[in-house]
Amino acid sequence: ELKVEQNPLFLSMQEGKNYTIYCNYSTTSDRLYWYRQDPGKSLESLFVLLSNGAVKQEGRLMASLDTKARLSTLHITAAVHDLSATYFCAVDRIFQGGSQGNLIFGKGTKLSVKP
Amino acid sequence: DTEVTQTPKHLVMGMTNKKSLKCEQHMGHRAMYWYKQKAKKPPELMFVYSYEKLSINESVPSRFSPECPNSSLLNLHLHALQPEDSALYLCASSQDLSGRKRDTQYFGPGTRLTVL
């Protein structure tokens, strides 16, 4: 059974500080997604990481993937209030033959950035 | 354009009502999904359609009935729901399910459903 674990689940940080969110998954996967969700809103795609060693950056967020360790990280640099949201990592459920199923999500990390 | 639209945005219904949720995308995607998200929880899959055919049904109660009338539309028909079915219902689409064409799933804004 594919499991995806995120930590921490809650993160309160001050503006200007750096922090990392971790995402571990239990079975082999070559693709990992990061989504952002604001309260009461839908999920916004942030990153798709396609291969081992992949690193992507957008503004103050940088995501990386280590498929051997089954670990992805989302690093926040010099946090600002606008980054306050819940961040989900997700992994494809892949069936025999390579067809894609649904996304299996981590529980989410609720980030609160305070002045 | 990576837009998935959903209507209505909010829906309040009684346990004896029949209602439908609608999802639409014009990205040429051939895979469409319904997810259910309870408060402070991650989304959980309900159904997957591939090329207008039901591909996955995650043991969802029959009071939820999906329908994919064409490649751009996905409906979720609701009947005799329970208060515990109150949640955010998210529709998503992706290019394909096949291994070579796996793609990001794009989510709609969701329908906030309240069952009284």
Structure explained in plain terms:
The complex is a heterodimer of chains A (115) and B (116). With 115 residues, chain A is mainly beta. Chain A has no helices and eleven strands. Chain A has strands at 4-7, 10-14, 19-25, 32-37, 43-49, 55-58, 61-66, 71-76, 85-94, 100-105, 109-114. In chain A, strand 9 and strand 10 form a beta hairpin. Chain B is mainly β and 116 residues long. Chain B contains no helices and eleven strands. In chain B, strands 2, 4, 5, 6, 9, 10 and 11 form a seven-stranded mixed beta sheet that branches. In chain B, strands 1-3-8-7 form a four-stranded antiparallel beta sheet, with no helix packed on it. Chain B starts with a strand and ends with a strand. The model of chain B has no long low-confidence stretch (mean pLDDT 91). Classes of the chains: A mainly beta (115), B mainly beta (116). The A-B interface holds A 31, 33, 35, 40-45, 48, 88, 92, 94, 97-103, 105-108, 110 and B 31, 33, 35, 40-43, 45, 48, 56, 58, 88, 90, 94, 96-100, 102, 104-110, 112.
* Helix/strand class of chain A: mainly beta
Catalogue the unreliable spans of chain A.
none
| Gross geometry of chain B | globular
Our Rg estimate of chain A from Cα atoms comes to 14 Å
Q: What are the segments of chain B in which pLDDT stays under 50 over at least 5 consecutive residues?
A: none
Span between termini of chain B: 36 Å
Number of E strands of chain A: 11
Short structural description:
The complex is a heterodimer of chains A (115) and B (116). By secondary structure, chain A is mainly beta. Chain A contains no helices and 11 strands.
